[in-house]
Amino acid sequence: MKRLSSDRPSDDPEARLGTRLGNFALKAVLGRGGMGVVYEAEHLYIRKRVAVKVLDGRFFHDKDARERFLQEARAASLVDHPNIVGVTDFGEAEDGTVYLVMSHVEGESMEQLLVREGPLPLFRTLVILGQVARALGAAHGKGVIHRDLKPENIMIETRAGRRELVRTTRDAHGSLEVVEPERHFDFATVLDFGAAVFWGALDDHNCEGDVVIGTPQYMAPETARIGVADQRSDIYALGVILYRALTGTLPFDGQDPAQIMLAHVHDPVEPPTRRNHAVEITPEAERVIMKALEKEPDGRHQRMESFYADLQRCYGSVRFRRIGEAIPEEFTPEAEIMRPRLLVHPKTPTAKPPEPRHTPALAGPSMPRGNAAVSAPSAGEGRPLLLTKKKGHRTLPFGANTPAPEALGSSPERHQTWPYTPAPTGRAPAAPDPNKPHDDR
Predict the structure, then answer these.
(1) Which of 53, 290, 383, 395 is deepest in the core (most CB within 10 A)?
(2) DSSP 381-433
(3) Closest CA to 384 of 425, 365, 356
(4) pLDDT tens-digit series, residues 181-228
């Protein structure tokens, strides 16, 4: 293992491969930003894989750059949140190179995801950005403003799901809901606090700087105009990301950064529903986007918590609910709880719905009052029985007697269910591990 020489470090990121910084061996280049290079690295003794960010050699003698690099380490380590990359160490090598050690985050950036797939479904977008909003709310609570939020700084990792999805379709006969397990979801991690500033108490005045820092396409008008930023500037950036994720386009873009910044300051934002008619954008989602993109900070959400709360009201034809953790064990074999279930909601019932057989009530957080639908063994039939408390719903067993989609007056594609057949265990779902990052989206 080579040690770095005491001379000025090379500007070539590849030149560091095979060398060591402190107790870490640099294995591969993961990425390069405006001020630093990120390497995949391994601890020499415990063999733990980490990411090491090194200040670019161009800034070797730049005291301000070195101080901003140290500030990034302070900002990221100050906020302990599962959706923010963890910073575990900061050091200086023998040659004067400064570096910080971070958790290694799997997956791809949201930028890569958007470039590959284009506009994302509303449900998927809200799941990702809901996590980002919670993370930034935690950062703001510690007085940390990110200032450079963009898809490149959001990592997406696919993880196993722990909730139920409810897909709703409507036709001339009413509405149809299909309940299915969430097989996986996008876990989001916020990266790169290199532009972050410490703001102190959230009731203080804005942060001001001598230079404008950020990415023009995601820059709030007040930052573009006079270089100030507070938590509402991060909300603006999240609004831009939400806009792009649902429309596939940016509110303002071009080749000239100065023109883009002027557009953020002066030009009206075109409503997202005029940009993309193919992706579901609920009226509430459009309202939240347009509010986040107000020119004046006072017109936006004033706190990230209120932005997150409004975001949760934007779900449309696909929503989620959490699987209960306190359901009695005799009613919770996984094959029964996780199997897709069919709910039919007629507009005007023509006959009184049949009375369901008496079945013990199932308790748990997955059963909101007045709108619960769960599976339980049906006496003598050996298949789940759909129970519902919502008036006007037909009660249908999921199985051979379930009507075909054509009988409900619409095409099969609209009522497709997704097969899911885990082996039954007879055990209740395990409670979440408090030591693992939550997925409370």
Answers:
(1) 53
(2) T-SEEEEE-STT-B--BSSTTSPPGGGGTS-GGGG------PPP-S-PPPPPP
(3) 356
(4) 888 899 999 998 878 787 753 344 445 555 677 899 999 999 998 888
Q: What is the pLDDT of residues 153-177, one digit of tens each?
A: 999 999 988 888 888 887 777 778 8
State the amino acid at position 3 in one-letter form. Answer: R
CATH superfamily of 108-162+184-311: Transferase(Phosphotransferase) domain 1 (1.10.510.10)
**Tokens at 134, concatenated:** 């919670």
pTM, to two decimals: 0.70
Residues sharing a CB contact under 8 Å with residue 258, sequence separation 6 or more, in sequence order:
none
Whether 26 contacts 19, CB under 8 Å: yes
> 281 and 266 in contact (C-beta within 8 Å)?
no
Domain 2-103 has CATH 3.30.160.160: no
Count of C-beta atoms within a 10 Å radius of residue 409: 11
Domain with CATH 1.10.510.10 in the chain: 108-162+184-311
In a 13 Å sphere around the CA of 174, the CA atoms on its Cβ side amount to 16
Select which of 56, 148, 186, 192 is catalytic: 148
* Average pLDDT of the segment spanning 299-321: 92
